[in-house]
Structure formats: structure tokens, C-alpha cells
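Good morning,

Both structures are done.
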Amino acid sequence: MKRFAIGVDLGGTNLRVAAVDDAGRLLEKTARSMRALGGRDAVIRQLCQDARELAARHGSAGTCVGVGVGVPGILYLEKGVLRRSPNLPGWENFAVRDAIASQLGLPVRVDNDANLAALGEKWRGAGRHVASLCLLTLGTGLGGGLILDGKIWHGFLGMAGEIGHIPVVENGAPCGCGSRGCLETEVSATAIVRKAQALLAAGATPALAEEVRRGERGAPLTAELVYRVASAGDRACRELFDSFGKYLGLALAGLVNVLNFPLYVIGGGVSAAWDLFSPAMFSELCARSYVFAEGSTRVARAELGADAGLYGAAALALGSAA
């Protein structure tokens, strides 16, 4: 009998649920707006309803062995408790695993969402041919996950992989973690928007200013908009992505030198700007890491896109990681 699992990506913006079989085929997925769902209890009810319906629809094809859940935040892994999450206000010290298990009657495992995205890329994506990898997810912030010999590396307190909070700028911009000058204050969608706002205030990018003024109420200033203007040739916006790539290369050099993994995977929504930031990234990486310059270490784009976390969550439930 075939086996499948339910993978859940519990994000600050969207709730995504999928059925994935043990051969790594994504059978079906759903996506819902977290804002539309309302509070924590309503989200859990909808999550469980979606999971039940997916399990029922695909029950004829095999046995549902459990549920894996990716959560953005710091977890007590053994207890399945979310300690805190900037993206999920009101969820502090919430027993997310038990809340789901009590409604579904299935085994439930939870882990950090970036860890599960890394596991997904290991199982079915860019890392399927290596034993160990490091994933960096470039989104609103910068997440990270480490796979060591095929399994998630959690570290001593379960907090390994906090790559976004590597300090890179002394007395730099404030970070949501309470520190300053963390990597994600230089390498994230939030960083791009912050720096673009400074360019606009200085009158340094008329092309971007014109794009923001367009439309009935003006186009929102997003990292995607800055990318489009940079791609059209705007010098100031292109230099912004050069800086982005430089800091990313600097961080990668440290990771390569310390970890000596064969593969470093770059994912997340901002990875779509690869053509603009990767030249500076590779230049800095080669200059800063003799391990990279002299060896066969690879840096590659993620292959699974937004579904990486769903694959990883299903793999967790299927027993493909510890």
C-alpha cells in the first residue's frame, strides 16, 4: 500500500496544505489567506479541515501516515510548542502540535519553516544528489536551514540556521531580533525597500519615483518594483542589488569556510533577482573564501519555489528526517 502525508506551511501571509506521497509526488495543495481566516483558533480549524479533506480524497491511493507542519518562529521541538514568531502575533507559547493532533487524530510533527524548506530541497529539489546542504531563503527576512547527512541539523537549542542574524554591519540598521546590522537588514525584500526609500528621499532615482507615482493611488514600493526598475537600467537601483549581492557573498564565504558543505541553495521570492545580485555575490564569495575558490563547492538556485516547505513538511511526517 502506498503511503502519503499531509504537509503544512503555516506562514504569516498564507496557510498552505498539501498531500504528498512517499515517492515525492505532490498530489494536491490548497492555499488560503491568513488574514482572511482571522485569529489563531480559526486558522487551526481551517488547517485541520483542509488536512482531513485532502486525506479523504487521496485515501484510496494509500495510507495517510501523519502531518508535518512548518512554522515561522522559535519552537520547543520536543513539546511542539511555538515559543514566539514575529509573523504570528498572538501565537506565543502555543502548543501547535497538540492543537492539530487533537483534532485530526494523526501523528503530527512540527519544525521551523526554513528547516523544512531545506529538507524539501534535499528530498526533491536542488539538493537531491548531495548528503548535506545549506539553504538561504531570501524573502521578507532571511531564513536558513542546514541539512547534515540527510537530516535537519537543529543545534543545541534547536535554533541552528539563524543565518539572517549573522552580524555584518557594525551599528547597522535595527533588526527585528533586537540587534543591529544583521544580514537580513542588508539581504532581504525589507532591506531592498528600505534602501529604495532612502534613494527616493535623496532624489537619486527618478525612474523609480515615476513608477511609484503611476496609477490611481501610486504603485506600492516593493522589492519587485525596484527589481523591474533596476532591470530597465536604472543605475542607483542596480547598485542597490550590487550591495545586496556583496553582503550575501560575504555571508556565504563565512558559511563555506566553516561548514564545507558541497551545496548552498538560494531560495525565496527575492531569488528571482538572481541575474542582478549574483555577479556581485560570486565576486565577493571568490575573494573571501579560499575554500570556494579552490574547490568544487556549488551555490545554486532552489528548484521547488514556494512548495519547498510543503515537500519538507511531508518528508518530516513520512519519517525522512529527524
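Second structure follows.
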Amino acid sequence: MKELLFRPIDIASLVFFRIAFGALAFADVLASYIGYHLLQDSYNVDGFRFKYYAFEWVEPFPEPFMTIFFILMLGLALCILVGFRYQLSASLFAVGFTYIFLQEKAHYLNHAYLFCWLCFVMIFLPAHRAFSVDVWRKPALYRREIPFWSMAILPGLMAIVYFYGGIAKINPDWLQAMPLKRWLAAKSHYFLIGPILEQEFTAYFMAYGGLLLDSLVVFFLLNKRTRIWAFAAVLFFHVVNHLVFAIGIFPFLSVAITALYFPPNFPRVLVEKLSQRFGILRKYTQKWETRLANATPAPLWQAAPAYRTRIMAGLAVVLAIHLLLPWRHLLYPGNVAWTEEGHRYSWRMMLRSKSGSGYIEVQLPDGTKEPYKTLQLLNKRQRRKMKTHPDMILQLAHHIRDEYRANGEEVAVFARYRVRLNGKPKQFLVDPSVDLAKETWHMFEASSWIIPLAEE
């Protein structure tokens, strides 16, 4: 195993991913800045935010510092792309992106969680040791070869995402093409593809196609004879997802990582072929070759024998977290798509359509009851997410309790939300008779105040 992990391979694929990663990082941060900060005002220091448990202390900067922070993040993404002060830029970006991620639980997306992990992994990879500003400034940094592990960790993480995503799809709703039937039918107005999307067979094709692709694609990617066909299937799958569901950078990120299953030198071979056809590219590559001709390569700690044990231990920890954490929903009774206990960080992607309606009721010290006006506290996305997520309902109940307590009143807080999961009849999500002001959320313990799904 040690010989495999540390055998030398071409650095070209890792450089390709660094460029793609920097471009996608820039796009995602820009989207968060425009969409969440400017349009939704989600990072207002005076606003209410749903916090991740254990990270309640994370707060946004007051203006204009939040805007300055986003501008700096965009600059760091570009630094990663071109490989300028790479390790410092990657380190600062990883902390900054995770800081954005932790601001608001209502913004949770699987790709954002994956991107947080990739950010920290990229810090330790020698992705700047070729075709970078750092190498141009200091040619001794150039390395044509890197140890296998420093590239393999990326498609390895993606393999887990694919495979666990496939396992999660083996459930009764998905096998009946739910919730795809509902989502695709709602897109029947799309130009050209609308009439196709509203057909029931399309939902079944996408459901079973997605299940098979997620479950098996890694095995076909590992096989040289089937790799190109598997990659074509991945490309088709993600292009369709992007066109139909508009799910941000995830399709592009997935394709970029999946490309790493090809031989490590594929970007170099491609550039060499293009250089033969385009004189300007040939002239540019010759400049690089001249620049690096007499450079003496600096040591690469990622390949040093003294670090091998620690590197293998670090890889084992990262893989263990990703292999074990998605199974934690088995610690809880009930349907995870309903209770949400163990749903996050588990690659359970696009498996449920949930809608809810109802209100929060506050019981005052004199026994009278009144509805709480969430419209004044939450934005549209927060309201939509909160109605279907028990942990968010509880956090809101605690905020309301503390709000009244600050005014000298001890109140009881009840949630009366009826929720529909994947087209099933609506039912209460949390027990409307339980005072949520007195309840607590436990990371690895079931919440008795969540009402089980009726079919169970």
C-alpha cells in the first residue's frame, strides 16, 4: 500500500484541478455574495440565523467589513487559480469558505460541505509546483512528478460521494421515482425539454439511471476499457442536472474531479497536441521550458520518507470520517428524510421533496396564547427550510423563548407545522403539545418530540 501511495505520477492532473478549483471557488463565493449577502441580506449582524450546533459562536462581520471579506475571498480564489502564494492563499481561503458555510444552516448544500473538505485538503497538496506564478517566480519549486496519494485523495473523496449517493437512493420513494415525478412535472414549461420532462418515464429513467450511475460509475471509471464511456455518462448526467435543476457549481465540480480518473498526464498530452496546432500556445510552452531548464527542484515534503507515516495516518482519518459519518442516521429510529436526524453530511442528495405550513404559538405566563410572527424575523428561504426541519424549529423556539425572557417573561413555545414528504399526506412533524422551550437537541440521540412518519 505504501509503495502505491507514494509512487511518482505526473503532476499535470493536479494542476488542472487547481485551476478548475480556483475558478469554481471564485464562482461560488461570488454567488454567495450577490445572492445571499446583497439580495437576501443573510449576513446581517442584527438578523436571525440558524446556527450549526457547536458553531453558534460564528457571527458575520459588520458592514463594510463583510463586503471587504468577500472581496478578499474572491482575490484568494484567483490566487489559487494562478498559483500565487498558493499555500497561504489556500489556507486562508479554506478558513474563509468554512466561515461562510457556518453562517447559516438554511443555506446547507451537499456541494458546499464537500467544498469545505476540498479546501482543507488542497492546502496539503503540491498543486502549485507546476504551471503557477509561484513556479514562474521561483523555478526551483517546479516538480514534474508528485506522489500518487496527493492526486488520488481527490477522486477518492468523490468515489465516496458517488457510492453513498447511490446507496441512499435505494429506498421506496426513489424506486417509485419520487420526488422526481413532482419536480419534473413542475418544469413542463421549460423550452424544448418541457414536454419530455413531464412524461412519467423521464422521471423513472432519471431515478434508476441516477441510482445505477452513482452506485457503479466508480468501478467503470477504474477500468481502462470502460472509463471513457463512464465519463461520458457522468458528463451527460451532470449536464442534465445543471439544465433542469440549476444546482450551482456541483455539476462542474463533479466533472472536474471525475476527470482525475484518467491518466495523470492527460492535461499535458492535451496541451502538447494543441501546441502543435496553435503557434501562440507553442511559443508560450517554450517560454516555460526555457524558464525551467536549469532549475534544481526543491524538496517535496509530500514525498519525503520521513513524513510517510504521518501522511498515511492523516489519509486514514479523513477517509474514516467520510466512510463512517454517513451511517449515523442508523442511530435514530424513523425515516431520516422525515426526521432529518443524520441527514446532513451523508450525501443524501435530492431524495426528498418537503413542504410545510403552520405557525409557532407562544403561551404567555397568564395562560393566553398568541401566534409568533416569523415573517418579521425570517427571510423566505429560512421560513421554507424551518417548516420542514425539526432542528431549525427547535432553534427558532429557543430564540423566541430567549426573546421573551429578555423582557422578563417565561413562556412556553409550541410548533404546529404540518408537513408533506414526497407527495404523502400532510401530518404534524413535531408534537404540537410539547413545549419546545424546554427541549434540547442531541447530536446522537433521537428527539422524542418529533412525530414519526405515519406510514411507519
